[in-house]
Amino acid sequence: MGLAVAAAVFSLSYGMTSVLFAVYALGAAPVAVHKIDKASHSIAVLVGLSLFVGYPIRRAIGEEGAMVQVVLTVAVLVGLWVAGFGWRRAWT
């Protein structure tokens, strides 16, 4: 919430806001993968982070369709999983 307020106060463009949100999500991804005990909660946090990052990207490129949102969310989710070293966690 604080990042969204900061982006609005400083009148950042969607491109700069997406970079800011992505940096935050890249820092939070390892925490979401390794510090949350239940795998389902960890996945939910990663999906939430990918939706959080995907919104300003979709606005920056000007696409609002549902298919674009799904593709972008999955792409960001995969990126966050890689950034959080998701293959090192036992997901079962």
Question: What do you see in this structure?
Answer:
By secondary structure, the protein is mainly α. The chain is built from four helices and no strands. It starts with a helix and ends in a 9-residue tail after the last helix. The mean pLDDT is 86.
Series of H and E elements: HHHH
Q: State the helical fraction.
A: over 70%
Number of helices: 4
Summarize the biggest pleated sheet.
none
- Count of DSSP strands: 0
> Mean of residue pLDDT?
86
Overall geometry: globular
In whole angstroms, the N-to-C terminal distance is 32 Å
Concise description?
The chain has 92 residues and is mainly alpha-helical. It has helices at 2-9, 14-34, 39-61, 66-83.
Write the topology of this structure.
Blueprint lengths: L1 H8 L4 H21 L4 H23 L4 H18 L9
What keywords describe this structure?
92 residues, globular, mainly alpha
